[in-house]
Amino acid sequence: MNAPAPYPSTATVSPGAAPAFRFDGGAADYLGVAILAFLLTFVTLGIAYPWALCMIQRWRCHHTMIGGRRLRFTGSGLALIGLWIKWFFLLIITLGIYSFWIVPGIHRWIVEHTEFE
């Protein structure tokens, strides 16, 4: 028995229908969120980066639709802070080499905390 796909198939979108992928965010909206996220990260010397990252991701998901369904980001800064502290420590003791593992790790965490509304 085949399980249904967890996301809408783009093959079912008929010609003339709504586009399979849509992004409706604007520059002014993003600028406010980006400045706030930057200030939060800068003022806390990077400690609050998980919350800044979640703000940006929440904005991106709120403005992204796939197959007519809007995305929702469920992650929180509190849920990411443990990983961030570990990654930050490893980044320092490896003199930056660990960043090659941090980038995919952050992306994996973001994907795992993104779903359809």
TrEMBL record:
InterPro entries attached to this UniProt entry: DUF898 (IPR010295)
Transmembrane intervals: 30-56, 77-101
Record keyword Transmembrane present: yes
Keywords in alphabetical order: Membrane, Transmembrane, Transmembrane helix
Descriptive protein name: DUF898 domain-containing protein
Organism: Nannocystis pusilla
